[in-house]
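Hey, I was hoping to borrow your eyes for a little while. I'm sending you its amino acid sequence along with the backbone structure tokens. Take your time with it, there's no hurry, and the full record follows here.
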Amino acid sequence: MTQPDLPRALRRAAAEFALLAAAGVFMALLGPFGSGANSMGERFTYWLILIVGGGVIGIAIDAGLGRRLEGFWRRLALDSALMTPAVTLLVIVVAHEMYGTRFLLPGPLPFQVFVVCIAVMGLRQLTWRGAPAPSAAAEPAAEVDPTGVFRQRLSAKRREARLLAVAAEDHYLRVHTDAGEELIALRFADALAELAAAPGFRTHRSWWVAASALEGVRWRRGRGEARLCNGLVAPVSRGEAAALKAAGWR
């Protein structure tokens, strides 16, 4: 288990314990199977030990086998059937220690234990139904580079370089990177489509600049000039000025 998973596992364990304890309190208040004749303190002790202890047994079995089964009822039946012998033994030991009863197996006891196991494990499965698996929640989302597809068009020397700007020149594009510039055969409209998710601005009908490359904009009568980090200057037309100004380049 990785370090980030530890708090999640502890929270899950605390929630499991709280659920089992609540079921134990309910059984103590209900007082089934003749336990209602005992004092309230004895009933709470008896049922909390049995429900929490039996629940731990059931959870261990479910973690090893139950989760491999598809279907609510198949999983519930398997968990309850497999945990019944161990929980029955737990009932006999607790009853002996608390009330001095002999180590005997009363006829209806296994069936009574099975019924309680069905109820407790069913409640647990309903509680956690639809909860995301811990491994899926812990898996970090893969980071996608929005310029990656476009940069695959460049030579190996500049494919991994930082993209700064793209300028149209007839039927070609001049691509500016922090590893130099390169001329490729591609329509400007196609380049804009591939860079649609990348943070940047179309500053002119033939220019696109990366937002991270901008260092300043000088405005002149509605038009402007965008200065990039590599010293390059890109024109800003009146029609494209609004986006830059809205981003704070005034």
Remarks:
- Residues 133-138 have pLDDT under 50 and may be disordered.
